[in-house]
Design brief:
Strand content: under 5%
Structural class: mainly alpha
Order of helices and strands: HHH
Distance between the termini: 26 Å
Number of domains: 1
Oligomer: single chain
Length: 69
């Protein structure tokens, strides 16, 4: 999905915070990606934030499990 916005050879690729292919990124891009990931929790209310937060944790753990295995 992220490679649609910028290509890996583009000069502005390091600022594309949706592109997380493990190549070098800027600090501002990493901060922006994390803020967009947790921002919905501020607007969903207590119940929605709990569900969204739980789903986010499950998704991140599912990505980490192959590395831990």
């Amino acid at each position: 999905m992220g490679d649609i916005i910028t290509s890996d050879t583009s000069a502005i690729n390091k600022y594309d915070f949706f592109d997380s292919d493990g190549l070098e990124k800027s600090i501002s891009g990493v901060i922006a990606k994390n803020l967009t990931a947790v921002a919905p929790m501020a607007f969903l209310g207590p119940m929605g934030a709990s569900i969204y937060g739980g789903a986010y944790v499950i998704r991140e753990m599912a990505k980490a499990m192959p590395m831990l295995y």
